[in-house]
Amino acid sequence: MKTTPIIACSIFRPALEALGDSIPSHPVYFLDSRFHFTPERLYNEVVRITQELKVKQVFLLYGECSAGFNLPIPGINILRVNRKDCLEFLLGPEQTKSFARQRCFVMLPEWVIRWEELFYHWFGFSPDLLKTYMQEIYSSIIIVDDHSTSLPDATLKDIAQATGLDCQRYPVDITLFRDAILPILTELE
Length: 189
Hints:
The chain is an alpha/beta fold. The protein is 46% helix and 16% strand.
């Protein structure tokens, strides 16, 4: 019997690596977090991986950020954690909603490191439009810091300058993430 592979968003690489031996081991295939914006490409990558591995079941460790993520793949059982988006894995649903009510733009560590790519390429903002848009829509930027990735103060200052918004670190541990995925991983054993 083949081990069920995990197809995971690259956002979760540091958290999965930090959990290490504390969770059951499964082969992990990381896909770029930018697939959040192109669910059809995520779907095609999941189909490709399942066909290459010749498996009938995968654990898809991606938030349900887009309706396209929920498309069935014929003949493949896709296991999911019931989380609206990647933020809920690390913050939990209540804290995620609280930040939304406060009009906070929340950034996970990978997005902080790739902030210029995120804003200028993925979102397509010019520098002037970025600042205008962010100040009209958001009150501040929350930087989720799970201590898995180096997030230099200089990078946070660059983001604050580019958006015109205050950047605040929000420290978390990976307990909520572990608790979200452990039931499925344990069930697969």
